[in-house]
Design goal:
The protein is built from 8 helices and 2 strands. By secondary structure, it is mainly α. It has 2 domains: 34 residues, no CATH class; 122 residues, no CATH class. Helix 4 packs antiparallel against helix 6. Its main location: membrane.
């Protein structure tokens, strides 16, 4: 979010209608009053930058995140193959804290990459049903980076539930 906002600021400073009217009328006293009241300029949405951010976020960002998710889930599932004898929860917990719980030498990276390729389009298309709306709300209506992070995190909870269901298949 920070890099996108620094590269393509959503808002730029623009004179207020009152400031334009006062300047057009050469009313220095009114301009001075507006300056004291911080009413000379206001933030204005930069539509071009907002469109660029939406496009970058929904293409490059979405593709990279989808690939990263698929590769991570595929590799961790292969590295954490659950032994048959660990059907009981306490035995599973003991196994997970042991050094043998995650073994990346067991991972068949060719199959992980093949699965990531197979999963890419379904996940990418599913993401297009949620994330463009979240990005639009964030870039158009939410002005602070902190607010955008909050909206993104809340949407991320919903997305995380969906992705957990996908990963469980």
């Amino acid at each position: 979010q920070d890099l996108l906002e620094q590269s393509f600021p959503a808002y730029h400073v623009s004179p207020t209608k009152d400031a334009i009217a006062s300047a057009a009328a050469n009313d220095e006293k009114e301009l001075d009053r507006e300056a004291r009241d911080n009413k000379l300029v206001e933030p204005k949405l930069n539509i071009r930058n907002t469109v660029v951010k939406l496009l970058l976020d929904q293409t490059v960002g979405a593709a990279l995140n989808t690939l990263a998710f698929s590769m991570f889930v595929g590799s961790i599932q292969a590295a954490m193959a659950r032994p048959e004898h660990l059907a009981h929860a306490s035995a599973s917990a003991k196994f997970l804290v042991s050094r043998g719980a995650v073994d990346y030498s067991k991972v068949d990276w060719q199959s992980v990459v093949a699965r990531a390729k197979d999963d890419f389009w379904p996940i990418f298309v599913a993401g297009l049903k949620l994330w463009p709306m979240v990005s639009f709300i964030n870039f158009v209506f939410i002005k602070s980076i902190e607010g955008r992070n909050l909206v993104g995190a809340l949407a991320g909870v919903v997305w995380g539930i969906y992705m957990s269901l996908v990963a469980a298949q």
